[in-house]
Amino acid sequence: MIDFKLDENGDLDLSANGLASQESTLQHQADIIWAEKGWWHFSPTLGVGLQQYLNESDTFPGLVQVIRQELERDGLSVESVSIGVDGINIEAQYL
């Protein structure tokens, strides 16, 4: 999927003297994982709400399941989701 390129702060990247575009599947995955339900008016029930999991213990199995479910709801074909010391690892692509 191609979309506008965002900078490290999530703002439009205007460094190339205009709007840049890039492959955006990874950005869409990150947006869904961070988003709380109700954040997007066009899809108010979509979102993992990662912030609520950060201070909880023993939530990783449930978190993996919720991430998979929400990504699939957005049209991604999810092969795997795992959480390790290096972060959340996702193998998925849009159908």
Could you give the topology of this structure?
Elements: E1 2-4, E2 21-23, H1 25-34, H2 60-73, E3 76-84, E4 87-94
Antiparallel strand pairs: 1-2, 3-4
Q: In words, what does this structure look like?
A:
This protein has 2 helices and 4 strands. The mean pLDDT is 90. It has one domain. With 95 residues, the chain is α+β, with helices and mostly antiparallel strands. The strands form 2 sheets. A two-stranded antiparallel sheet has the order 1-2. 25% of the residues lie in helices and 24% in strands. A hairpin with a 2-residue loop joins strand 3 and strand 4.
Quick recap of the structure?
The protein has 95 residues and is of the alpha+beta class.
Task: Name a few traits of the molecule.
single chain; 95 residues; alpha+beta; two-stranded antiparallel ribbon; two-stranded antiparallel sheet; 25% helix
Q: Uncertain runs with pLDDT below 50, 5 residues or more?
A: none
Which class of secondary structure composition applies to the elements? alpha+beta
- Quick one: how many beta strands? 4
Report the sheet-strand fraction.
Answer: 15-25%
Report mean pLDDT, rounded to a whole number.
90
User: How many domains in all?
Assistant: 1
The biggest beta sheet reads: 2 strands, antiparallel
Strands of the widest sheet, in order across it, are 1-2
N-to-C SSE string, H for helix and E for strand: EEHHEE
Q: How would the global form be characterised?
A: globular
Q: Gyration radius, to the nearest Å?
A: 14 Å
N- to C-terminal distance: 10 Å
What is the helix tally?
Answer: 2
The share of residues in helices is: 25-40%
